[in-house]
Design a protein that fits this description.
alpha/beta, six-stranded parallel sheet, three-stranded antiparallel sheet, 11 strands, globular, disordered N terminus
């Protein structure tokens, strides 16, 4: 039985199987596959595979594996909900005058960021964009210091120097957060080159929107990554931004209708996946990471998401109001002008519905998670608003040219 690339705790599985009289064999730690051999009922076939002949194969810890899968989904949901509540607070703080200037939010794309960040290892590199808040939170940045940074406070994760467009956390593998369209793609080639030189099976992931592929640097990055067989995951979050901003159909920007045709020109393997399906995202993004980690060169993933209605204007606006998680549990009807988006395109509500489909206990658990996440954000807002601004005397600190 092969359990592929889902991040299972191999030691826990081994212990559980041995209690049941089975003997698991884990060929390699790197590919995280678990090969289970059942005594007295196996026939070793060519190529080292094991064919299980025992009709009682159900003894092999499948109940535990299902429990592990469920726990993973709940953790993903809590991360996604924290990402959502964080950015709802960002919009509200901006509207109240707590900070000025332009900003972008990640609402509606949480499943992609939560899954992608959970599958990367500590040694991996990340390059991301102006729509970076969700990636930071999913990777483990403290919401207090992230919010303080957006408000330009001295207690912020970058001392108030970075602001919303340039949040960065080198200790968590972030090489850069670029406010320039396509800017992260070029830097990620250098990150992936460093990974290859280190020879430690690390990878670099670059996250960008579909509009970044209009930049010439994007094709140059794809070409170099393919030429040098770099361990670089190109993760394109296609939210069809240009359609909402009135610049016309994609044919006016690209000669191709399928964005995956661009990396295919360089011989890069590609996959396209819906941004609502957490299980499919884990499979596709996990496969892309493993492809790069095993030395087979770059991989391009297009994640297709629907643009959140609040992002259809120049400044993000809370046109949908705060997300009412009770719409997933059936306690509140998702009616009104944006009901269609909530029903079909909201990844947070989609996963919540899946999790609470079978019991009242699970619906209560969702409410408890929402309460816990909301309390964390209340503390983060208080921390950020209560923090002091940087000393003007430090304005030129870190300026080197």
């Amino acid at each position: 039985v092969m359990l592929g690339d889902r991040g299972y705790d191999s030691d826990a599985i081994r212990e559980d199987l041995e209690k049941r009289g089975a003997h698991p064999v884990i060929p390699t730690k790197r590919n995280r596959r678990v090969q289970i051999e059942i005594d007295a009922a196996v026939d070793t076939c060519g190529g080292g595979f094991v064919k299980v002949l025992c009709i009682e194969v159900n003894i092999v810890g499948f109940g535990m594996l299902k429990e592990l899968e469920s726990d993973r989904r709940w953790r993903t949901f809590e991360t996604m909900l924290l990402m959502r509540r964080f950015e709802e607070c960002v919009i509200e703080l901006h509207d109240s005058g707590a900070f000025a200037g332009h900003f972008h939010v990640y609402i509606g794309q949480e499943a992609t960021g939560a899954v992608a960040m959970s599958l990367l290892e500590g040694k991996d590199h990340i390059c991301t964009t102006h729509r970076n808040h969700g990636h930071m939170i999913a990777r483990g940045v403290d919401e207090k210091v992230a919010l303080a940074e957006i408000l330009g406070r001295a207690t912020g994760m970058n001392g108030g120097y970075a602001g919303t467009f340039h949040l960065t956390a080198p200790n968590l593998g972030f090489l850069s957060t670029s406010g320039i369209v396509g800017g992260a793609i070029s830097l990620s080639v250098g990150g992936a080159f460093a990974c290859r030189q280190r020879r430690d099976s690390s990878v670099t992931m670059t996250l960008f929107g579909d509009g970044a592929l209009e930049e010439g640097i994007a094709f140059e990055a794809l070409n170099l990554a393919a030429l040098w067989k770099l361990p670089l995951v190109f993760l394109c979050e296609n939210n069809d931004a240009q359609l909402w901003m009135g610049s016309g159909p994609r044919s006016e920007e690209h000669a191709v209708r399928d964005l995956c045709d661009l990396p295919r020109l360089c011989g890069i393997e590609t996959r396209s996946v819906a941004g609502l399906d957490v299980a499919e995202l884990e499979k596709v993004i996990g496969g892309a990471i493993e492809h790069c980690r095993s030395g087979r060169g770059p991989y391009f993933v297009e994640v297709r998401t629907s643009r959140w209605p609040g992002n259809r204007t120049q400044f993000a606006a809370m046109v949908t109001g705060r997300t009412d998680i009770r719409m997933a549990t059936g306690e509140t009807l998702d009616s009104g002008e944006f009901a269609d988006w909530y029903q079909k395109d909201d990844p947070v509500l989609r996963l919540a519905r899946d999790l609470c489909a079978s019991s009242t206990e699970e619906r209560h658990r969702i409410a408890e998670i929402d309460d816990r996440v909301s309390a964390r954000m209340d503390e983060a807002v208080a921390f950020a608003k209560g923090s002091s601004s940087p000393d003007p005397a430090d304005a030129l600190r870190h300026v080197f040219a």
